Amino acid sequence: MTSEHSHQDDQYDPATTVEAVTNAAQDIGEFIRSQRLSAKVSLRQLAERAGVSNPYLSQIERGLRKPSADVLSQIAKGLRVSAEVLYVRAGILEARPASPVRDAFLADSSISERQKQMLLEIYDSFRRENARDGAEQFASTADDARVANEVIDGLGTGPASSAP
What's the per-residue H, E or C state across the chain? Predict the structure, then answer.
């Protein structure tokens, strides 16, 4: 029975998939609209900056269309926000942990989106390497501490400790 239950959970459910896509489209649309309004940019201005039609951008904002990565990139440029932010909101990329360094890269308008992505990849690779080295060093330190505790415990059980 357990295998039947897990098999049922793995079955493709078109209604659930359609609902998930619709929710993602609405979420990114609402986010784009809120960013546009806070930037005080009209729908027409953003459509022009992004190189998409006014009706298409309106459909994106209302959650009727889910934009491609290319369109999101153009919208990001039009809004002067990071494409990565829009990709995460649209479910194209996984969210990365917050970091002041990452935020500084993303906020820098003097470098291109591609340059930002390259810097972030290099930065993340350094962080992973340092985390791995730190874990190895911690394991080595933990081993040293364990050995030291064994020596100390061994000293406590020797003949000197049995004296009154």
Answer: CHHHHHHHHCCCCHHHHHHHHHHHHHHHHHHHHHHHHHCCCCHHHHHHHHCCCHHHHHHHHCCCCCCCHHHHHHHHHHHCCCHHHHHHHHCCCCCCCCCHHHHHHHHCCCCCHHHHHHHHHHHHHHHHHHHHHHHHHHHHHHHHHHHHHHHHHHHHCCHHHHCC
Residue with tokens 């039947």: 4
Per-residue pLDDT band for 147 (boundaries 50, 70, 90) equals low
The tens digit of pLDDT for each residue in 45-61 reads 999 999 999 999 999 99
* Average of per-residue pLDDT across 33-53: 94
CA–CA dist 164, 150 (Å, integer) = 23
CA 67, 68, 72, 78 torsion-angle sign: negative
Nearest to 65 by CA among 79, 76, 49, 54: 54
Count of other CB atoms within 10 angstroms of residue 74: 19
Look at residues 76, 89, 83, 81 and name the one whose alpha carbon lies nearest to residue 117.
83
What's the rounded Cα separation, in Å, for the pair 93 and 86? 9
